[in-house]
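INFO batch 0412 | record 1 of 1 | parsing
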Amino acid sequence: MGRLKVSVTGGNDMEVKKERSNNICTLYVDGVLDYSTMEPFVEKVRSIEEGIEKVIVDFTDLEFIDSTGIGAIINLVHEANTKQFEVELCGIIDEIKDLFETIGVFQIMEALQEESD
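INFO prediction complete | emitting tokens
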């Protein structure tokens, strides 16, 4: 299957690009993922097609995330359970990784993933 690129600009400080290659969908998050910019991310999650086996979220260009943005990540994991795909987070800077670990994002992801197995 070919590659599909879609770009949506949200709020003032965030862009989400969606790229599909075969059965893998990659979401590139650039900027700030917070209450004012999360809608484009949520829409990209909702638009993930049936047949996708893995979604990679690339946070290489993520500058900031708040609790609403973290909720959107958890929503992605729930969507993965519903649509039967795996989620991989990559490119997370140390400060955000520490935040995810403190809040328990990775533990929630593991628990939800085990629940679907």
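INFO post-check: The chain has four helices and five strands.
INFO record closed
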